[in-house]
Design goal:
single chain, alpha+beta
């Protein structure tokens, strides 16, 4: 997986924060990871299929997740409940959907998204297929820190395999 593949996702995070949350997010380091070490307290995952196959994950500490949801919904939630989980699922859906639109521009092939999945708690582990390589981007924002992870492989068009 090449680093430039992550740019549509980074741009989508910036757009989400500036347009929907009225906040600023700043990218930290980009690295490659093969594990899900330090998954944070709540993680939203969404699958990609079509000419590319993979997954996008956003991982948040509880305080960041609450700050984002409270800003998005205009609420004052203090615990991670179903409303917060649903909103975090929508956040990963927005980021992946926006990146999908950027990646599909000018192409006939369409990338499809799965339904988002939320994993929460501070003692979980996520096991990915053993040969998965994830690009991981840390962010600092007005609403707290979080991590974006993306993995996918471009499939060869039928007949070229």
């Amino acid at each position: 997986m090449r680093v430039e593949y992550i740019n549509p996702f980074i741009e989508s995070v910036y757009d989400l924060f500036s347009t929907m949350l009225g906040a600023k997010a700043e990218r930290g380091e980009i690295g490659v990871t093969h594990t899900a070490a330090n998954p944070r307290d709540i993680m939203a995952l969404i699958g990609l299929s079509g000419p590319v196959r993979g997954m996008v994950a956003l991982a948040f500490p509880v305080n960041t997740a609450l700050n984002i949801v409270n800003r998005l919904l205009g609420t004052e939630s203090r615990i991670i409940d179903d409303t917060v989980s649903d909103a975090i699922a929508e956040i990963v859906n927005i980021v992946a959907g926006s990146a999908k639109a950027r990646m599909n521009s000018g192409e006939e092939s369409v990338i499809d998204l799965s339904l988002p999945t939320i994993v929460r708690g501070n003692s979980f582990s996520i096991d990915y297929p053993s040969k998965s390589t994830w690009l991981e981007v840390s962010f600092q924002s007005d609403l707290g820190s979080f991590t974006l992870r993306v993995t996918f492989q471009q499939l060869e068009p039928k007949g070229k395999r």
